[in-house]
Amino acid sequence: MNRKLAAVAAIATVLVASACSSSGSSGDAKQATLSKDGKGKKITVWLMDDAQKGWPSVVEAAKKQFKEETGADVDIQWQTWTNYTTKLDTALLSGNAPEVVELGNTQTAKYIEAGSFVDLTGVKAQFENSDKYLDSLAASGQTPDGSKTYAVPYYAGARVLIYRKDLFAAAGVTNPPTTLAELKDALTKVKAANASVPNFSALYLPGQNWYTAASFGAGTFGVKNIVAKSDGDKWTGTLTDPKFIEGVKVWNDLQKQFSVGGATTDEATQDALMAKGNIAAIVGNGWELGSVADPKVGDPTLKDKLASIALPGNAAGQPTPAFLGGSDLAVPAKSANPGLGATFLQIFTNTKQQTELAKFAIPNAKNLVAAYKAAAPANKATGDAAEGQTWFIPNSPMWSGADETALKNAFGAIAAGGDPAAELKKVEETVLKDLNG
Questions:
Q1: How far apart are CA 408 and CA 291, in angstroms?
Q2: What is the pTM assigned to this prediction?
Q3: 148-174 per-position pLDDT tens digit
Q4: Element (H or E) spanning 384, and its range?
Q5: Cα gap 303→247, rounded to integer Å
Q6: 3, 143, 332, 346: most buried, per Cβ within 10 A?
Q7: What is d(CA 390, CA 224) in angstroms, rounded to the nearest whole number?
Q8: Which UniProt keywords are listed (predicted)?
């Protein structure tokens, strides 16, 4: 059995539960409708408890509007990420699926391939701001070629440059860098000013943090088709594109000059390490700024000494593309009331609700990010990153943790002195074997 057949077998329960024809592929999925015939009915919505803790008012407002427009009630069932896909698979197998489910954007592809969700393509234009969705988040809910939509963006997170204002200022850097050239100049000054500090990193870039390394490649190469691109039923590699390699060499130069992160570590502990005082900057998720100064796991004395900006790119106003994580929302094909589920999605992601959500997280559309940035000064960096060019992993059910491990090891090998072109060629071959079966 080849890998593709093995993968299909592994998600067979999902295929059984949610396929709408004998083939069970996404091309056979049920076409969505928008229904307001909800009198006397109740729909079930699975949302992660992030919303319960962060923006319950948005959920309540959507429930109220939905009730007013359809007559139906909404049962919100709060979920946690732990073992979530196992629970969802079970619900799909039972034929008793919720009308709406939330998924991490890296989880969505396998369910699309399995035909688990209704096809929203025909009604997408009736979703407010659907033509302005954040690029990478929108891509995660589509088929690889982008022609069909099965899940819609909910909210996002982005990586940014988090740095010590005090250390930069002490080195004579009083204005945030706006380009990679300015960043390199600033780091050179910070490194020189702290030459006597043991194990000092002006910019901590651990070798196995492949998301950051790939962002530098994307900055030169472009933001579409990072790692691999879909060509019909076949995937071809892009890691060996000369422009991608050129960007990776920029990352490699920065990590060799300014980081003591090493070739065998990743970003998992970088916020805790930064709190120890010998790191001037990291590339991390926006929430890591709070972790560095957290009283329990960090150093609260650093709170007023930290700042963040979108990771500068080759030109001012054009950040290095960020990997965009986040959540999608979808309607299971085997739910009892998929038309009402699609209508709830339409209401829950409309301009009104997303503008309110923007007080707490990056909303799903570029035209609404301004509201997020206006909500708090700390939001500007992640907002700028989300508004800029972003990228996403190959949107395939064949993508797995093994592929990420292979990429981590490849970039670690480059950080250890390996030739970028040679290492990227090797890992490209590995990833393509997985994607193509």
A1: 24
A2: 0.90
A3: 999 999 999 999 999 999 999 999 999
A4: helix 379-387
A5: 33
A6: 332
A7: 9
A8: Signal, Transport
